[in-house]
Design a protein that fits this description.
By secondary structure, this protein is of the alpha+beta class. The chain contains seven helices and eight strands, in the order ααααβββαββαβββα. The strands form two sheets. It has a six-stranded antiparallel sheet with strand order 1-2-4-5-8-7. The chain has a two-stranded antiparallel sheet with strand order 3-6. A hairpin with a 2-residue loop joins β4 and β5.
Length: 300
């Protein structure tokens, strides 16, 4: 029989061989077997335990050494990082030195907008502001006027403070009742057609607007300086009424021959509209000039 894989075999024949070789008849099994061929289990156990203990000591020793090496490397890295952090932090202020958020409100600055430029119409809407020189020469300067490609020759001019004396029909009483201060007239002609414009001047815009809306009749034509009497003695003429600022202005236009004006006489309508347009522009320019002068005047 055998005990264990590859182990020695024993039996009567083995004992005889030992005796033949001069032995004492007891066979000593290798590995601490007891005499008589029976293994010494206690010895085997002690030997196995001793081998395991040595192996364990070797493993533990190697682990301690590896741990020590890793710990040394980690400590070196921590020290190096600590040195860099300390150097970088030398220039940082301490928490106590950092400024705290102030509860005081920061000053605010509101940009001051420049004053708006004066409105030109303000200067021609009230006699208190409209103080520039006023007359036929300022409203109708020069020998001619031009509107678009139409040119008209200036004839006679006239100015009066007796407003009703230079009107026809009910216009005189309308001007007086609304506080008219003066009427400035001028006549312009072209190709047998003449137009007289009369500018009635009031203290306020409201008075001028009211006079324009209540107007009836018209301004009397002004002859002279090469223009004969026209639009008189019952002849039919074309009349207009407008107002801007404290100025109300009225036109009367027709043929210098005394012929009646009809709806088909476009040249008469055009001439009246051109003279009224030129007068309107002159009044606007008057306001612009005074507004510009006020804007550039030094502060008092």
């Amino acid at each position: 029989m055998s005990f264990g894989q590859g182990g020695p075999s024993w039996g009567p024949g083995d004992s005889q061989r030992n005796n033949a070789n001069g032995g004492d008849g007891r066979w000593q099994a290798p590995g601490g077997q007891a005499p008589g061929g029976t293994p010494d289990w206690a010895a085997l156990a002690d030997e196995s335990a001793a081998r395991g203990k040595r192996k364990k000591l070797l493993l533990v020793g190697g682990g301690v050494l590896a741990t020590a090496v890793v710990g040394a490397l980690v400590a070196a890295v921590v020290v190096a990082a600590g040195n860099g952090s300390d150097t970088a932090g030398k220039n940082l202020p301490s928490p106590e030195a950092l400024p705290s958020k102030s509860s005081e409100a920061l000053p605010s600055f509101t940009p001051k907008a420049p004053a708006p430029p004066p409105d030109p119409k303000d200067f021609i809407s009230s006699s208190k502001k409209d103080t520039a020189p006023l007359g036929a020469a300022t409203l109708f300067p020069g020998a001619t006027i031009a509107v678009g490609d139409h040119t008209y020759k200036k004839a006679a001019t006239h100015r009066t403070t007796a407003c009703s004396s230079v009107t026809q029909g009910a216009l005189g009483s309308v001007l007086v009742n609304n506080g008219c201060g003066q009427v400035i007239r001028a006549t312009f002609s072209k190709g047998g057609i003449a137009v007289t414009i009369g500018v009635a001047v009031f203290d306020t815009e409201a008075q001028a607007q009211k006079a324009m809306k209540q107007s009836a009749g018209g301004v009397a034509s002004l002859n002279g300086a090469g223009v004969p009497t026209f639009c008189r003695n019952g002849s039919v003429c074309r009349r207009t009424a407008n107002a801007y600022g404290r100025y109300a202005y009225f036109t009367v236009g027709g043929f210098t021959s005394g012929k009646n004006v009809t709806q088909s006489d476009a040249d008469v309508f055009t001439a009246g509209d051109d003279v009224a347009e030129f007068t309107f522009r002159q009044i606007v320019a008057r306001g612009q000039a005074q507004a510009s002068a006020a804007a550039t005047a030094p502060a008092s």
